[in-house]
Design a protein that fits this description.
- The structure is a single chain.
- With 297 residues, the chain is an alpha+beta fold.
- It contains eight helices and 13 strands.
- α2 runs parallel beside α7 and α4 crosses α8.
- It starts with 16 loop residues before the first helix and ends with a helix.
């Protein structure tokens, strides 16, 4: 098998194409020793960074730490296709079976809104991520693809997609928007933008850093101990976890993340076991942005 000719400036490495454009960010310090936090987030990709951002905006007094093995944005968040997309990954039917059909429709609407929300946050926080929102187009170039495309658009109507969310293009508009040899039909959705993912990750990390979130890089988490039988029944019939607000981090040389001997709660990721009002404040906005971050590919 013949190899593919490479250009003189071809590079395989440097983390990603996107980081070769902007250069690698300066490393933040590793976790220096034991620390106490209200929320500990494991992983400094889009999921962790957006979670920290919205938790800090909702509850500025929360003490939040992010632990990252490499540097914030090192993984898939900084090495993807560069699409901020609202397309659902996976089976809608399977999700609806678990959560209900209306929940799936509401999730999709939240994903639509999250595209503009990410763009608005980037603008408000001064994050230059080369954002350009012009939608996406699916093109069929043979009769089989055309049938599948029409069937897909029809099926999406049953999942809450309106005409403004996905539609088949008239031939004149199709030719105006895109020139694809042999195109028979095309469908257009406005819910997609182009981004420079490394710039978004680096900018988002700088933003949460500025908001007071501690990001520890070059810090490997080797263990998250699980709680066991420590829920207590309150006087009003509810349940609470004793001393659930505070988490202690131990230095990596002490085998990662451990709970204090005199405390029952473990260090946890994201908003697990936060007070209910913290959950409510975070859940309204974090989920859509978690998905948006993962779908920026």
């Amino acid at each position: 098998m013949r190899g593919i000719p490479l250009t003189r400036d071809f590079a395989n490495g440097g983390v990603s194409f996107w980081y070769r454009q902007i250069g690698l960010p300066a490393r933040r310090p590793a976790l220096p020793g034991s620390r106490d936090y209200d929320v500990v987030i494991v992983g400094g990709g889009y999921t962790g960074l957006w979670t920290a951002y919205y938790l800090k905006r909702a509850e500025p007094g929360l003490r939040i730490a992010i632990l990252e093995k490499e540097f914030a944005g090192f993984g898939a968040s900084g090495r993807n296709g560069g699409w901020l997309s609202a397309e659902f990954a996976g089976s809608r039917k399977r999700h609806a079976e678990a959560r209900g059909r209306q929940a799936m429709i509401e999730l999709q609407r939240a994903m639509f809104a999250s595209v503009d929300e990410v763009i608005d946050v980037a603008r408000a926080e001064g994050i230059d991520a080369d954002v350009h929102k012009s939608g996406l187009i699916h093109v069929a170039t043979n009769p089989a693809q055309r049938r599948r495309l029409r069937a897909e658009v029809a099926d999406l109507r049953t999942w809450g997609y309106g005409e403004g969310d996905m539609r088949l293009l008239e031939r004149a508009e199709q030719r105006e928007r895109v020139q694809v040899a042999g195109a028979l039909e095309a469908a257009y959705s406005p819910h997609c933008a182009r981004i420079q993912p490394a710039k978004l990750a680096v900018g988002l990390a700088a933003t949460v850093d500025r908001l007071g979130v501690d990001i520890y890089e070059d810090t490997t988490v080797t263990e998250i101990p699980a709680p066991a039988g420590r829920w207590q029944r309150g006087q009003g019939g509810g349940r609470h976890h004793p001393r659930h607000r505070h988490r202690r981090l131990r230095h990596p040389r002490h085998r990662g993340l451990h709970r204090q001997p005199d405390r029952a709660a473990p260090a946890v990721a994201a908003d697990e076991q936060l007070h209910d009002r913290h959950r409510a404040a975070a859940a309204r906005r974090v989920e859509a942005h978690r998905l948006a971050g993962q779908r920026a590919a």
